[in-house]
C-alpha cells in the first residue's frame, strides 16, 4: 500500500472548504481544544485519554448529532446517527501520549516523509475495519483515525 501524506487543506473535501464557521463555533473549538490539552496526564492510561477525546468530540460537534462510544474491541466509534443502532461512520484507535513506541509516526527512513504504519494501532485499525466492513456488512464507514491526542492520523475508508 502506497502512503500519501496530505495537508489538512489537501485532504478536506472542497465543498467543506466553502463552509464558513461562525465566530461562536471557532471560540468553542479553541476553548475545548485548550481544555483537552489541559486534561492530558502522561501518568494515566489509554482509557483515560480515550474518554477525554470522546468528551472533546462531543463538546465541539457530535453531542446532538452522532453517538460516540466503544463498539466491541474498537476504542471509539462515531455512529452515523445519534443512537447505538445506527451504522458506524468513524473508527478511532487511541493511544496514550506517553506510549510513543506504539504510536504511528510520519518519520520512517530518510528522508523523513514516509509514514511508519507497521505499528500496533494501525494493525488494530485494519482488524476493526475488516470486522465492521466484512463481518458487519457496514458500507457506510467513512473514516478511520489513530490518535494520541497530540497527533491525529485520518484515513479515508475507501483507501482501505
Task: Please describe what this structure looks like.
The protein is α+β, with helices and mostly antiparallel strands and about 160 residues long. The chain contains five helices and five strands; from the N terminus they run H-H-H-H-E-E-E-H-E-E. The protein has a five-stranded mixed sheet, sandwiched between helices. A hairpin with a 2-residue loop joins strand 1 and strand 2. Helix 3 packs antiparallel against helix 4. The longest helix has 17 residues. The chain is globular, with a radius of gyration of 16 Å. The mean pLDDT is about 85.
Summarize the structure.
The chain has 160 residues and is an alpha+beta fold. It contains five helices and five strands, in the order ααααβββαββ.
* Unreliable residue runs: none
Based on DSSP secondary structure assignment, what is the total number of beta strands? 5
Can you give the mean pLDDT? 87
What series of H and E elements makes up the topology? HHHHEEEHEE
What percentage of amino acids are in beta strands?
15-25%
Strands across the major sheet, in which order?
1-2-3-4-5
User: Which structural class should the secondary elements be placed in?
Assistant: alpha+beta
Radius of gyration: 16 Å
So how many helices?
Answer: 5
Strand count, sense and barrel status of the largest sheet are:
5 strands, mixed
- The rounded distance between the terminal residues' Cα atoms is 9 Å
Helix content: 25-40%
3D shape: globular
